[in-house]
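Let's see one such:

===
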Amino acid sequence: MRPAPEYLLPLLQLSDSALPTGAFSHSLGMESHLHRGLIHDEDSFANWLTQFIRIQLVHSDGLAIRFASEAATPDELFRVDRELHAAALPREVREAGVKMGARMLDIAGAVIPCQELEQYAAAVASGDCAGHPAIAFAIAGKALGVPLPELLSSYLFSSVTALTQNAIRGIPLGQTAGQRVLRAAHQEVRCAVVLAQTLDRADFGVTAPGLEIAQMQHERQRARMFMS
């Protein structure tokens, strides 16, 4: 009998939607569209989620995971961190990356202690890097020997799951409706994984102006459930 790969259980642990990184506190602009009535049911949320995956998620977190996995030196890795932080123009999105990155870095260091995570943590602590969950996840996955497609798939789907759970609370959606949204997102995540492996450096940070504007508007929204 063949055992499961050694990396599988740690990977499942780090990509669990219940991982306490604070993702449940962030809608990443969804709440602005909810406030304006653009998101109000299962179909409208699924459409928003599709655009988020195709445009922002794959070009930011997805490419960051690939570039961090390919980095041959700490300097190359730290460059990915700085570029990812600089590309996040909305203040709340930048702050979300820093806060969730600190938690992911702490948890990943406990689950998969390794020199690369220690170096990244030291760079964050010194201010040389901002910190981001995608990069901490990529370092941990690389240390575990996780193939890039599996690493991308698990992280992207974890992000999609967190946003869907927030939509279930915020719209609100029923739990079954949320599962239908997640099932429909399988193909989008698969396509995003392929795309993240084919784009080049010039595509890093590409996003939709409308989504960025919504993320900026959230800062001044009067009533809010989420931090972003």
Residues 23-219 form a domain with the Urease accessory protein UreF fold (CATH 1.10.4190.10).
